[in-house]
Amino acid sequence: MPDMSASVSLAVTQFATLAKEVDEDKVTPGVLGFIVFAVMALAVWGLMKSMNRHMGKVDFEETPDSEDASGAGAPGKASPAKG
Q1: Nearest to 19 by CA among 34, 35, 30, 6
Q2: What is the pTM for the complete model shown?
Q3: Cys staple from 66: which of 16, 51, 71, 74, with CB 3.0 to 4.6 Å?
Q4: Tens of pLDDT, residues 36-49
Q5: CB 66 within 8 A of CB 77
């Protein structure tokens, strides 16, 4: 695998030459920071959209309880012990 640090430093120097003047004492994210942030925002949006679609497919409907209001179990079925 090629050394990625050389290509990253080349990309950073190309972005730095686009600026009219570079102040060495001022640190800003610049264009590269905005691009990274925008890509991450699009990824989060896509994941949220996918999660919403998958959660829509889930059926949360529960089966009705076989116990009546007094708490007695249905005939022929054992009720769980409490305590």
Answers
A1: 30
A2: 0.43
A3: 74
A4: 999 999 999 999 99
A5: yes
